[in-house]
Amino acid sequence: MRYDKDHKDRTHRHVLAVASERFRRDGFAGVGVASLMKDAGLTHGGFYGHFRSKQALVEAVISEGLEDTLHHLETAATDIESLVDFYLRPEHRENRAQGCAAAALAAEIVREPKRARVAFTRKLARIIAHIRSLLPDRSEHRAQAIFALLVGTLQLSRAVSDRSLSDQLLQAGRIAVLALADSRIEDT
């Protein structure tokens, strides 16, 4: 069987997309190569034509996932308020498999080898730079704190079993981010 020249690229992107959803939903350790490839509609052996190891796939998913998060933030947010409204919405809370890679994977990434954390750090810097560009004072520290508040708020709202408390956490995070963005705290 002959494939067109773009077949390998399309298949590679498809495996990445399936892995990204599975890793965000089930964690890195909760996803095996065989089950991942089955979900992608491919054979287990075909995996190694695209990635040298599961670790290489993890690194690619981290990089692509945060790139996707950045793209969504750049598209949805023209100011801090629209960024907060986009990020801390109930639909984002409910959709972990397609939501922010940082919120879904941060606890996983901390246990990964340095190469995965380096990939995360590079993309994180770009997300923070975007947030910084939305701030009137362009404060790096404030942008870092805002993203940390957004990610932590989203993670906690997903973790609790009480929907009312989850909604309250989203609202509290929204209030805190907007207050921080508008504060007169010196950037040290």
TrEMBL record:
Statement: the UniProt record of this protein carries the keyword Transcription regulation: yes
Domain of life: Bacteria
DNA-binding region ranges: 32-51
Keyword terms of this UniProt record: DNA-binding, Transcription, Transcription regulation
Gene3D superfamilies linked: Homeodomain-like, Tetracycline Repressor, domain 2
Claim: Transcription is one of the keywords in the record: yes
Boundaries of every HTH tetR-type domain copy: 9-69
GO function term, MF aspect, one: DNA binding
Protein name: DNA-binding transcriptional regulator, AcrR family
